[in-house]
Amino acid sequence: MKFLIAVLYCFVVASSEDPFLEGANLCKFVECPVGTACGPTGECVPFPSEPEQDCPRVMCTLACEFGFKVKNGCPICACRRKPFKNCLFADVRCPVGEECDPFSGLCVPKCPTIRCMLACEHGFKIVNGCPICACERESFKFLAEESKEV
Asked: Do the domain assignments include residue 64?
């Protein structure tokens, strides 16, 4: 079985025999639908699957959208996280108002273009993941003043 893995803009084909992709590492690249979980070969299997051991019955009032976490092969009273979607893959699109970060493969809020007359030596301040028209540190010049000096 082969998987297509995106790293920045390079595509690498890796097989499940690759030692880097053993066990849990392989599941980092697999998104399974609700009611299934990533198995040891990286394929989605029904969840909860028949346990190899006797598991205690879980008395839990949580309503988990993505199912329960598993510890030592048995479900526990904790919710699974939302599956990771890598937007560098062609079949995953970011929602409106978000864009794909080419370094992490995650959808991030799309930042508005800022028009700013400050020249900041250490860059702009970042608020909610987007730059604003304020310097990171207090060492700035107005671009209009700088152009008069020339």
From this structure: no
DSSP code at position 146: H
Percent of the chain with pLDDT over 90: 2
Domain that includes residue 135, residue range: 118-149
DSSP 147: H
Start-to-end CA distance of the chain, whole Å, equals 64
Alpha-carbon dihedral sign for residues 105, 100, 38, 76: positive
Q: Is residue 27 part of a domain?
A: no
Cα separation, 108 vs 7, in Å, equals 17
Which comes out higher in pLDDT, residue 145 or 12? 145
Q: Which helix (H) or strand (E) holds 24?
A: helix 24-27
Q: How many C-beta atoms lie closer than 10 Å to residue 19's C-beta? A: 6
Span 122-137, average pLDDT: 86
Six-digit token pair at 39? 């198995």
How far apart are alpha carbons 55 and 9 in whole angstroms?
44
pLDDT of residue 105: 80
Q: How many CA atoms lie less than 13 Å away from 96 in the CB half-sphere?
A: 0
pLDDT of 6 > 50? The answer is: no
What's the one-letter identity of residue 1?
M
